[in-house]
Design brief:
The complex is a heterodimer of chains A (259) and B (304). With 259 residues, chain A is an all-alpha fold. Chain A has one domain. Chain A contains eleven helices and no strands. In chain A, α6 (139-170) packs antiparallel against α9 and α6 packs parallel to α11. Chain A is globular. Helices cover 36% and strands 26% of the residues of chain B. Chain B is built from eleven helices and 13 strands. Chain B is an alpha/beta fold and 304 residues long. The A-B interface holds A 2-4, 6-8, 10-11, 14-16, 80, 85-87, 89-97, 255, 257-259 and B 48, 51-55, 70, 72-77, 79, 81, 83, 87-92, 96, 99-101, 103-106, 145, 149.
């Protein structure tokens, strides 16, 4: 497994994809921070100006969902179109057990998610400090809420990475993977919402609460800061979905014909 | 008894139709085994099962005497493969592609990739990325990957497609050197039968997923010897005349045809002998045959 992981890293760190992803996301962060800085320049009252705290609130609002779909992008980077360019067989030829390949892809996906996310947060805070002038009065509580959001979102993002790995290992077309990934998160929530709206079924609402997207949505509304026990449910949900996605994905991949 | 490198027993793979149909085959250490068959005969499917890309529907096989998925995977570490057109990461150079697989497989030696690239004639590709390689260069890199880790058994599917004449000669030399100096066993499928004839020590002919024949190169050479093919009106009388003249290296075929393996450069003497003995000579031709003719005959004529 270690050799496999090192090999994957050797390849990924030699690919422009990783650096372009960080650069493009960095540019988006620069645009957002610049927008805040511009808004600050139009405000005369210094007490009304936005500080780094505002950037944290922005992250709490948007990062949970963005992070989930970001795992699809990282999954694509990790898998490197191995089915399409038919390089997976070179690994299989060597007798690498399929479980090693499968878990290796998953672990690599997590490593890149961590690396890219850490790089982007560093860029965001660096830009925030440079353009918005450092922490404001509400930085402490905002930072605490941000950390609680992260603590709850991480296991749910891990489940996203597990689904991305399962889909990329089993489906050849990246377009189909994208559709399946987005569909898996968007459709059940909305379907259950619709059922609940049409006929008041309490079970539908209960099931919807257990979904990854609902947990992430709750995190954006401060569920973790209001009730720290909510983090436990996030971890339980995240780990359950991770296990389910990994098992289902490997069931398909273990017998898949590798072209 | 020497353990076979590969042995299959009633190996079968079914998609919609039978792609491989109850093949029982054995490859011994040191053999260069030519797998011969038409397109769709089941050669690549058989190779895919050996390499672990797909699984048998029924039957089983061993590698170096080991069976069972976990053991087969362990034994596959002793195999080098090149199946169809080699595939690599298009955005990496030849060196980086090989280095990636070296690290992934845990093979020691940072100089390994460079040494292999020199061996296959790709030492000067520098920063050129795989996506810009010609088909011949891709084939050479595929061979380099197959040689990574000094395998005991090479499995090659159509390895010389796209190689120029010089490349084919170099490729053959590399394989023969590996076979002679290191005792590497080789399973090679190719449509270029003339080239296969320069390499193989044994052949397996397959058609419609079935194994038609396993035969050694020596046996084929014996069957494909040059000869005089003589059509006469009375074969027994002609045979008697030849024996009286002390000529014994011939065979009588159905349809009053005699194949004479001596006097190939002297058909006049033979025709005089037979005509003088009262045998009517219908035709006399020099007959040369090779692996291709043998294959075509086995397939039942030129439709192959």
């Amino acid at each position: 497994m270690t050799h496999y992981l090192f090999g994957e890293m050797y390849r990924t760190f030699r690919r422009r994809y990783l650096y372009l992803t960080v650069a493009v996301c960095g540019l988006v962060l620069l645009s957002v921070t610049s927008l805040f800085a511009y808004a600050n320049s139009t405000v005369e009252d210094a007490s009304q100006r936005m500080h780094l705290d505002m950037l944290l609130l922005f992250f709490i609002q948007f990062l949970p969902s963005i992070g989930l779909y970001f795992t699809l992008l990282i999954g694509d980077m990790t898998f490197s179109e191995e089915h399409k360019i038919q390089t997976m067989r070179n690994t299989i030829f060597f007798g690498m057990p399929r479980i090693t390949v499968y878990l290796g892809k998953f672990v690599n996906c997590l490593v890149y998610c961590f690396v890219v996310m850490a790089a982007l947060l560093a860029i965001a805070f660096g830009l925030g400090a440079a353009l918005l002038g450092g922490p404001g009065a509400a930085f402490g509580p905002c930072f605490r809420e941000f950390l609680l959001m992260l603590a709850g979102a991480i296991p749910l993002w891990i489940a996203g990475a597990a689904l991305a790995t399962a889909l990329f290992c089993n489906i050849q077309s990246p377009t189909m993977v994208t559709l399946a990934f987005c569909g898996a998160f968007i459709l059940p929530t909305n379907f259950l919402k619709l059922i609940n709206w049409l006929v008041d079924v309490p079970a539908a609402a209960k099931i919807r609460e257990l979904l990854i997207t609902s947990r992430l949505d709750a995190l954006t509304h401060g569920a973790a800061s209001e009730n720290p026990a909510f983090l436990f449910t996030c971890w339980a949900t995240g780990l359950a979905f991770t296990a389910a996605f990994l098992i289902l994905g490997f069931a398909g991949f273990s017998r898949k014909e590798i072209k | 008894m020497e353990e076979p490198v590969f042995a299959s027993h009633q190996l079968t793979k079914r998609y919609r139709d039978l792609a491989v149909d109850h093949i029982t085959l054995e490859i011994k250490p040191g053999q260069i085994y030519g797998l011969v068959g038409k397109n769709g005969a089941g050669k690549t499917t058989l190779i895919r099962m050996i390499t672990g890309q797909t699984f048998p529907t029924s039957g089983d096989f061993t590698l170096f005497g080991q069976s069972g998925e976990a053991n087969l995977n362990r034994m596959r570490r002793r195999i080098g493969c090149m199946v169809e057109t080699p595939s690599f990461f298009p955005y990496l150079t030849a060196h980086d592609n090989l280095e990636f697989y070296r690290i992934q497989r845990g093979i020691p030696g940072r100089e390994t990739a460079d040494a292999l690239l020199r061996q296959v004639g790709l030492a000067n590709t520098g920063r050129k990325k795989f996506k810009n390689f010609s088909l011949g260069m891709k084939q050479r890199l595929g061979l380099a990957l197959a040689l990574l880790g000094s395998p005991d058994f090479l499995v090659l599917d159509e390895p010389i497609n796209g190689l120029d004449p010089m490349g084919i000669v170099e490729f053959r030399d590399v394989l023969l050197q590996l076979n002679r100096e290191h005792g590497t066993t080789i399973l090679i499928s190719s449509h270029i039968l003339s080239e296969l004839a320069n390499l193989a020590t044994h052949y397996a002919f397959v058609d419609s997923g079935r194994l038609l024949e396993q035969i050694s190169a020596d046996e084929i050479r014996a069957k494909c010897r040059d000869c005089l093919e003589i059509a006469v009106n009375n074969a027994p009388q002609a045979a008697a005349l030849l024996e009286q003249a002390g000529i014994t290296d011939f065979e009588v075929l159905p349809g009053s045809t005699i194949r004479l393996y001596s006097h190939i450069d002297d058909p006049q003497t033979i025709s005089s002998l037979l005509v003088g003995g009262g045998v009517a000579l219908l035709s006399i031709n020099t007959h040369t045959s090779n692996l291709e003719d043998y294959f075509l005959n086995l397939m039942g004529g030129k439709q192959a």
